[in-house]
Amino acid sequence: MRATVRDFAHREWGPLHTAVRTALVTRKWGAIPMTVAAVCLTALFQLVQNQDWGYQPVQNIGSVRAEDPLWLALLRTPLSLFVPALDLPVWGALAQVLLVFGIAEICLGRWRTLAIAYLATLAGTMYARVGIALGPDSPLGLPASDARVVDTGPSAAVVGLAVYVCWRYRARWTGALVIVAMVVEVLVKSNLAGKEHLAAIAAVLVLVAVTAWRERRQPPSAPDPEPRPGTRSWKPPITS
């Protein structure tokens, strides 16, 4: 039984653990500079928005609502990822960013991590508008009151990155568990945040499908041709 569990853990998390551990041992904090910056920015926004003078400026640059004009929501979306929700403990957002963004930055690279994070966040932002247009009578709809809900925080990006990293490193059971957990969240408490998480997962799964399709279409690399007689590769090594 113990050996079976160990074998499963090695198959599921072995490549991911090796990649993360190697990067942290060899480069330490230098392996995740973008993640460190993201954690500091999130903490800064939390500190500022809890001041009397800082709440409105943070809202002006990073607060997204479905009732806002689309151009304004798109303009605020990049920074909204780093503005913690006021009704949730900030340590949760900081831990999510440090853990998931850090793993993703090591495994996927800085720019791909940011691209996927923003794709997931934007998917959630756009879904909110679609859901409100569908109305509460639709399974995918939202009540009109959700148009005034402040939509900030890294959770959609974290979920999207977790699913993508699990796919890339073949941690299929872990990725499936993340998806099931988000579905259960919506079934237990159907709210804007939960449905945005599902929208983020859907967007990342489309990206996974497109990436896998492109990789399958790439022709296999041709093996090196055999050296022909008369070429330099047939000569004995040069000695001095």
Describe the overall structure:
It is built from nine helices and no strands. It is mainly α and 240 residues long. Helix 2 runs antiparallel to helix 5, helix 5 crosses helix 6 and helix 5 packs parallel to helix 7 (155-168). The chain starts with a helix and ends in a 23-residue tail after the last helix. Residues 227-240 have low confidence and may be disordered.
Q: How do the helices and strands follow one another from N- to C-terminus?
A: HHHHHHHHH
Main sheet properties: none
- Terminal Cα separation, in Å? 61 Å
Report the average pLDDT across residues: 88
Structural class, judged by helices and strands?
Answer: mainly alpha
Q: Helix amount, in percent?
A: 55-70%
Rg:
23 Å
Shape: globular
Quaternary class: single chain
**Got a strand count?**
0
Number of helices: 9
| Unreliable runs | 227-240
How much of the sequence lies in strands comes to under 5%
Topology:
Elements lengths: L1 H26 L5 H17 L5 H8 L7 H11 L9 H19 L1 H25 L20 H14 L3 H17 L3 H26 L23
Brief characterization of the structure:
The chain is mainly alpha-helical and 240 residues long.
Features of this protein?
mainly alpha, 9 helices, 240 residues, globular, single chain
